[in-house]
Write a structure and sequence with these properties.
Layout (H helix, E strand, L loop, with lengths): L31 H27 L7 H31 L12 H32 L7 H31 L3 H4 L3 H27 L6 H34 L5 H22 L1 H19 L7 E7 L5 E7 L1 E4 L9 E4 L16 H13 L1
Helix pairs in contact: 1-2, 1-8, 2-3, 2-8, 3-4, 3-6, 3-8, 3-10, 4-6, 6-7, 7-8, 7-9, 7-10
């Protein structure tokens, strides 16, 4: 996550004709121009996050408890405050002080304060994703929930998240107390680079860990595998967006420290965190319904044509798990006038079996179903 840091100086040319009344021209394309682009993109993403929040709270199938609802509300609150602060920053530079070029060497207080609120958003969303890692480890490995390996996997994510938040908090407080100009801010460049590196590392680690755990949980059951595939897709997409934004901020602040190009990414990364959380929560119903539809299609297709009263269904997964169901049904029909007696037979090809009741002896399917409910 990039932080407002640039060694930015405005140099006004004083060599001009004696009778000239033209104002000196300043090249602000890669400074205030870049920051303005970041504000515009951040505003668009903020609108999307507000829409997703409205959809979350008005979804009739939403049954989350107060902790998740509080999380969503807090993320939107911090996102809103952050957008107000960056809007104040750009308004101060480009409107209030339009004819005051000297302001361009000073750091407006809102440009420093917004760092903290971006940090709060990142902390909440990354903590939520870290909790998902722990839940998945606990549900898929119930006998190893307290093992050293599970603790280590989760602890690495926790350390990265807390280290990033600690550096952001330190940067924000130090900047508000000590920084008056961008020249002062340049002395804190090392801390800004550290925060960027920790943000990128945390996002990549959490996304990669979730994908690895999900991939290793495949069993061959259609419903569970459908959910896992979609969870992997959402994890990669949401993790990739925040990771790429953090990496882009890190590269730009290192390669072009005297510009505001990194602010384009910095203004947007908080919105990406918020939208990744909301997209994950709002997509749960879609993921479950698509998995149920896949299971229904498989079941009706497998039992559409039944031989002469027995059905053998084999489902073999990637880990060698197989289920075989044998069903035999007999029926007695009333005697026809020609035969004058009862006749015994079995269900033939002319009847479609739409439902087969059987006991499921697979612990793997039960575990994956519970995991899907907890994680999705």
């Amino acid at each position: 996550m990039a932080l407002p840091l640039a060694n930015f100086f405005v140099q006004v040319a004083v060599e001009e004709p004696a009778m000239s009344t033209e104002a000196p021209k300043l090249n602000l394309d890669n400074t205030m121009g870049a920051a303005f682009v970041g504000l515009a993109v951040a505003g668009t993403l903020y609108g999307i996050s507000v829409l997703q929040t409205f959809r979350y709270f008005t979804n009739p199938g939403q049954d989350d408890g107060w902790p998740i609802k509080t999380l969503v509300g807090a993320v939107l609150f911090f996102d809103t405050v952050h957008h107000i602060l960056i809007s104040h920053t750009m308004y101060t530079y480009l409107v209030t002080n339009y004819n005051n070029p000297a302001i361009l060497v000073e750091c407006v207080w809102s440009l420093l304060a917004e760092v903290l609120f971006n940090g709060f958003t990142a902390l909440l969303v990354q903590s939520f994703l870290t909790l998902r890692v722990w839940k998945y480890l606990r549900l898929t490995r119930p006998h190893e929930s307290m093992s050293a390996a599970n603790w280590f996997v989760t602890a690495v994510a926790v350390v990265l998240v807390l280290a990033e938040f600690g550096c952001i908090t330190a940067f924000g407080i130090m900047a508000l107390v000590r920084v008056k100009t961008f020249a002062d801010l340049a002395t804190m460049k090392w801390l800004s680079i550290l925060v960027n590196a920790l943000a990128a590392a945390g996002d990549v680690y959490i996304a990669a860990t979730l994908c690895w755990l999900l991939q290793n949980s495949r069993t061959g059951f259609r419903r569970s595998d459908t959910i896992i595939k979609k969870l992997i897709l959402f994890t990669v997409n949401t993790g990739a967006l925040t990771s790429l934004c953090a990496v882009a901020s890190l590269i730009s602040i290192t390669a072009a420290p005297n510009t505001f190009i990194y602010i384009t990414f910095f203004f947007c990364i908080g919105r990406l965190y918020a939208n990744s959380l909301l997209a994950t929560l709002n997509a749960r119903k879609y993921i479950r319904e698509s998995a149920d539809q896949a299971e229904y299609n498989t079941t009706t297709g497998a039992f559409r044509n039944v031989g002469t009263g027995s059905a053998n269904v084999g489902t073999r997964g990637a880990k060698g798990i197989s289920i075989q169901i044998k069903t035999t049904q007999e029926y007695i029909t009333d005697a026809s006038p020609a035969k004058g007696k009862n006749s015994r037979g079995s269900i033939g090809d002319d009847m479609e079996m739409t439902r087969v009741q059987h006991s499921d002896n697979s612990d793997s399917e039960d575990t994956l179903a519970k995991t899907s409910h907890e994680i999705v």
